[in-house]
Amino acid sequence: MAWLAALPDLLTAAGMLLVWLRPDLVGADWVARGVTTMLLEFFVVHASGFFAVVMYSDVSRLKRSLALGGLAAIYLAMLAAFAWGLHAWWMVSAFFWLTFGKIQAVWTGPRRREGSREQNAAIVAWAAGTACYLAAVSATALLQWPVLGVTPQVAAAAGFQGTGLWEQQPHTALAAGVLYFGAMALVRVLVRRWLLAGRSTAPAAAG
Asked: Which residues contact 202 (CB under 8 A, 6 or more apart)?
């Protein structure tokens, strides 16, 4: 179960690596999608901490849903500006889907308690995710990384024309994605095992 929770991040890291190595197999458009995925992940990471607090707060489901909707509206407004500039409106729909999943979990899942082990696990995962994201971006900005398959010709075919690091060197964004999502897969495993370990010892502690 722990590795099952890490599977989406492992698949994303593998996909980033494939695009970095062989963009000729998947198409130059996937280089641009990899870069925008890392931009989208910034908003997801930033919002996840607030979402975790709201989802486990000791208020009614309606109030939690309204709070999540309000937070989502704020992030959607910021994300829309990036999507408009990058002509990548799928980022808005993807974030909307992520938010819908959290609101759906509030109404269909069990009653969550503030200060519970589950909330602590969510907050730990958010803090670790923030650290991993910043570390991955910093590493790819400060160190030299091989271009591999993302040559200047491929970058041009993907439509990059700006002056930013990820636009001039999109392979660094893909490298950051491999590092970040790979690290997050490990975080998911460690957090899930810690959570399951706590559950398995709870009856003994209660007795």
From this structure: none
